[in-house]
Design goal:
With 175 residues, this protein is of the alpha/beta class. The protein contains seven helices and five strands. β3, α4 and β4 form a beta-alpha-beta unit.
Length: 175
């Protein structure tokens, strides 16, 4: 070992808390690791549990809280959860962006702040890449949701699952 490697300390661990808010979803993606879908019974954490978990994460000096599901925006109390979390710690919510219209979008706008990031699942720059696993017509609705979020001032991060359908065309996603 060199002197340099002996003197260098490893970087600190940056802890992240992942909260599965619910398991019901408006989609039935064939590769869903949470086994979510439209016919899955609702199992939700609830606001009180989320607040307790966020407080524990802050006390333990976690860096970030991620809210995922199912589709978190099926929950009426997701806005209270996100507001509470993002007032205390960097917070990301994962969504397919298909439900963020009308009242749901207005509620999300009302809690927007610099700590709140919206991450949208988009599996390709072409409909056939995304729709192959998420269902026909979902790419168009998701892209429309991304545009609406951006027009509303949200920082949008994309999350992509590489699949046999999209792996040869991932550059289209960047376009």
């Amino acid at each position: 070992m060199s002197e340099l490697s002996l003197a260098t300390e490893p970087p600190p661990l940056l802890w992240k808390l992942w909260l599965y808010t619910n398991y019901d979803c408006n989609l039935k993606c064939s590769y869903c690791v949470a086994k979510s879908g439209p016919n899955v019974p609702r199992r939700a954490l609830g606001v009180n549990n989320v607040q307790r978990l966020v407080d524990e994460a802050v006390a333990l000096e976690f860096e970030h809280v991620f809210f995922t599901g199912g589709e978190p925006f099926l929950l009426n109390d997701i806005y209270d959860m996100l507001a509470y979390s993002s007032e205390r710690i960097k917070t990301t919510v994962l969504t397919n962006a298909m439900l963020l219209r009308g009242a749901r979008l207005e509620k999300l706008r009302a809690i927007a702040n610099d700590n709140l990031i919206v991450q949208v699942s988009l599996d390709g720059g072409r409909p056939e890449d995304h729709d192959a696993y998420r269902g026909p017509g979902t790419w168009e609705k998701t892209v429309e949701g991304i545009k609406i979020l951006q027009e509303s001032g949200f920082r949008v991060r994309l999350g992509t699952t590489e699949t046999p359908a999209n792996s040869a065309h991932l550059e289209k996603l960047c376009e």
